[in-house]
Amino acid sequence: MKLFSKTIGCALLLLLAGCASQPHTTGVIERDSLQVDPDVLYSMTVTELFEQRIRQPDGTSILQVQFAVDAHSDAELAWKVSWFDANGMMVKGVADGYRRASVLLGQTRYFKATAPHPRVTTYQLHIREPQ
Amino acid sequence: MLKRAIVLTAGVLMLAGCATQTRYVDPAADDGPVAMTMDYRDFEKAATEAVEDMVASGAVSNPNGGRYIMVVSRVTNDTMQRIDTDQLTKKIRVALLRSGKVVTTTAVGLNGAEDEMSMAARELRNSEEFDQSGVQKKGTLQAPDLSLSGKILQRNHTVGKEQQVEYYIMLSLTDLATGLAFWEGETPIIKRGSNDSVSW
């Protein structure tokens, strides 16, 4: 009797364990490095987007990105870079706000941003038109 | 009498309805108007440029491994506004700490320690009231390697019917062992607006 109830108990436990939801494991979702607001595309074109890792004296390296815009008319833009580690988690920088810039007709301007931590591996550049 | 009270109440309600509603501003998505005075966006810009440049230059990367210890020295406010320069230096400190390359000491300062508790906690030494195993030992405080100093300048000009206000945020990072400035940066913030605007 005791053995029977133990067997039933074990079977129930296994059944419950089988029903438990499996841990949600997703792979790293691919992010586009460049996110440009369509309104901005009328007034300027992003012509370059480079990235490099700068060697540091302590042996680590820091990700740096540079982009260039060619202006078709005098325009304002606002840009910011979001930084991510190897797991796709966001790494906080100094501030979350957009940086504003002006570009003149026919002008090419270069903008640079440096990652806040050596563990940053990827980034997303946002360009939009300020209101 | 009742008529007057009704008119008064209606007037107050009308005025209250016209008042601008108070709302939260999200610093990550703020397209609000720009003030002639220095606002939080200016400090963010200056701090971001300074920290990114410091990190990219390698000036805050210790070749012997480990983190540099930084102390915040004097940041002079040479503007017509009452600015607490901590608004700028705190952002830089936080970002450098997050970078894993620099840690700031609060036990030393030009006008005394920023946090006097480091020394106060040591006054418990030899006190019979305290378990001495938990009291800080002699020679454990860390001396700084780097010092952050600077100046915020303001210049006003009249340009036609407008005024131009120029702010210059100048910062230096000095290696205390040699007295040499390992890193220096300047962020100009130029604003042009109505002559009626006040920049102080």
TrEMBL record, chain A:
Signal peptide feature range: 1-25
Any Pfam family matching the protein: DUF1425
Top-rank lineage group of the source organism: Bacteria
Keyword Signal: yes
Alphabetic keyword roster: Signal
Database matches in InterPro entries: DUF1425, YcfL-like_sf
Chain segments annotated as transmembrane: none
The protein's name in its UniProt record: DUF1425 domain-containing protein
Annotated organism of origin: Marinobacter persicus
Lineage of the organism: Bacteria, Pseudomonadati, Pseudomonadota, Gammaproteobacteria, Pseudomonadales
Automatic annotation (TrEMBL), chain B:
Keywords: Signal
Pfam families with a match to the protein in the record: LpoB
Signal sequence, start to end: 1-19
Statement: the UniProt record of this protein carries the keyword Membrane: no
Name of protein: Penicillin-binding protein activator LpoB
InterPro entries reported in the protein's UniProt record: LpoB
Species of provenance: Marinobacter persicus
Membrane-crossing segments per the record: none
